[in-house]
Write a structure and sequence with these properties.
Layout lengths: L2 H9 L4 E2 H11 L8 H13 L3 E6 L5 E5 L1 H12 L11 H11 L5 H24 L4 H37 L2
Pfam family, one: Vir_act_alpha_C
Protein name: PadR family transcriptional regulator
């Protein structure tokens, strides 16, 4: 997710200043994606430059409140209506690691086992986090997504192990 569009979504609910946006962004994502406040203000500057937000006057505490523009609302609606392509997601380091281990002729089983243990630990932590953050639908959706990803990773690791075992057995039969 682009921070730019996330901030626009939060601003669509009303004017906000940078620290409010940071806190609401982190609360909405269950604090799974922490933002640096400098990142928030840099993004707000770009949004202002692009005509997607307008800054207001400074309040008595020196905070500038930002308001979304019509162009910002249009950009947010475009983002919501555009599916996220698989190619837009970052590369999966685990997939690359296992592929390179196989290509290097390494014993991949310990790699798979170490990842399986780490993923199970993550799954347990996410389950605890879900219980602790059940009140917010936004947080729950984020945590549920992470749980489903961890479960899918466990299934994929099982599949990798099965494919590699079958490959080894096939190679041994052909010797």
């Amino acid at each position: 997710m682009a921070i730019k569009q996330g901030l626009l979504a939060l601003l669509s609910r009303g004017p906000r200043y940078g620290y409010q946006l940071r806190a609401e962004f982190e609360a909405s994502t269950g604090a799974t994606w922490p933002l640096n406040i400098g990142q928030v203000y840099t993004t707000l500057s770009r949004l202002e430059r692009d005509g997607l937000v307008t800054p207001g006057e400074q309040d008595e505490q020196g905070r500038v409140v930002y308001t979304i523009t019509e162009a910002g609302l249009t950009e947010m609606a475009r983002w919501f209506s555009t599916p996220v392509a698989q190619s837009d997601r970052p590369r999966d380091e685990l997939v690359i690691k296992l592929a390179m281990a196989v290509a290097a002729g390494a014993d991949v089983r310990p790699v798979i086992q170490a990842q399986r243990v780490a993923t199970m630990r993550t799954l347990q932590e996410l389950t605890r986090a879900k219980r602790a953050n059940a009140e917010s639908p936004a947080q729950r959706l984020v945590i549920d997504s992470m749980i489903f990803q961890a479960e899918a990773e466990q299934r994929w690791l099982d599949h990798c192990e099965a494919v590699l075992t079958a490959s080894i057995q096939t190679q041994e039969r052909h010797r």
